[in-house]
Amino acid sequence: MSNKNQIKVALAGVGNLSSALVQAVEYYKKHSTRELMYPKMGGLSIPDIIIVAAFDVDERKVGFDLSKAIFAPPNNQREIMELPESGVIVQKSPLLDGLSEYTHDVVKVSTEADVNVSEVLKATGAELLILNTPSGAEEAVNYLTQAALDAGVGVINSTPSLVVGNSNWVKKFKEKSLPLIGDDLQSQAGGTVFHKGLLEILNEQAVVVEDTYQLDVSGGLEGLTTLDYERRSLKRGTKENSIKRSLPYDIRVAAGTTDYLDFLGSRRIGHYWVFGKSFLGQDVKIDIRMEIDDSNGAASLVDAIRAAKLAMRKGISGPVNSICAHLFKMPPVSLSRKNAAIAFEEFVTS
Fold first, then answer.
1. Beta-carbon neighbour count of residue 219 at 10 Å?
2. Contact assessment for residue 236 and residue 213, using Cβ atoms and an 8 Å cutoff
3. Which of 97, 125, 185, 291 could potentially form a cystine with 158 if both were Cys, beta carbons 3.0 to 4.6 Å apart?
């Protein structure tokens, strides 16, 4: 692996999404890439991603090698393969508002001293900071975004908190010539991308959609976090707005996690219902059940990381619309799924 292709990233939050990402870097050194849309992207492969730092607050992760921390409770992402030691020790970032009222009894906060995240980013040579913090942790997201800015590091925001959607952050990252990618990561085969695709097909066939919902239950910590009303409202708002934008007219939408079931582990079970009118005013009703593993969010994340590296090579700073529109629920500029895919393809192949 040549040094010019290395992508040095730091992880803020060592939960299930980070677990899947870390495992993917090792997995695709040895296994088939047929389920990947981009085995290579501008010459970059998934094993070119190098994790150089990681931050969390749980005592079962802080102070441990990342290869072990990703499997520590409350994580429940399955172990795909045995990992070698990474040499990256998880460090404690400030807690701030990282816990909701429902996760205080689940997360065991470390008593280790907080590190200066910005200084760690500088010392490790990180190029990108990945925000994988819990939904609704606004103070934590702002602290980490500022830390990245101070360190001269780009940001990929997997959370529904507005970073790319915040004009102040956009201005500051442009001034420092740093990429800003987000907001709210959209999974490879997740509920939102499936729901949007279904509605777009119906629209293409002149079916007028009137009402739809996408409700799910999950066993991951994110599902427990979003039982908190304010955090659930934030998450639902991003999903519902993303779904609404897939149609050229307004509809009634409900979308989001409705409950947490710990025995589901990292699985997420979604239920989709659509009602519309078709030819001769006849009813169209669709009722679908879908089960996925939350790890498929990492499929989008590995593409976002590599595309962000390409943006840095091209000297592009601030939000990169083609990346955001294709891989995130709340991009600064919304496009249809088809047009977003075309724009992304043009960006990564040009």
1. 20
2. no
3. 185
Strands 208-218 and 267-277: antiparallel
Assess contact for 322 and 333: CB atoms under 8 A: no
By the 8 A CB rule, do 70 and 18 touch?
yes
pLDDT tens digit sequence for 155-167: 999 999 999 999 9
pTM for the full predicted model: 0.94
SS3 track for the chain: CCHHHCEEEEEECCCHHHHHHHHHHHHCCCCCCCCCCCCCECCECHHHEEEEEEEECECCCCCCEHHHHCCCCCCCCCCCCCCCCCCCECEECCCCCCCCCCCCCCCCECCCCCCCHHHHHHHHCCCEEEECCCCCCHHHHHHHHHHHHHHCCEEEECCCCCCCCCHHHHHHHHHCCCEEECCCECCCCCHHHHHHHHHHHHHHCCCEEEEEEEEEEECCHHHHHCCCHHHHHHHHHHHHHHHHCCCCCCCEEEEEEEEECHHHCCEEEEEEEEEEECHHHCEEEEEEEEEEEHHHHHHHHHHHHHHHHHHHHCCCCEECHHHHHHHECCCCCCCCHHHHHHHHHHHHHC
Instruction: Name the residue among 319, 314, 345 with its Cα closest to residue 333.
Output: 319
List, for residues 283-316, the tens digit of each pLDDT value: 999 999 999 988 789 999 999 999 999 999 999 9
Position 350, amino acid? S
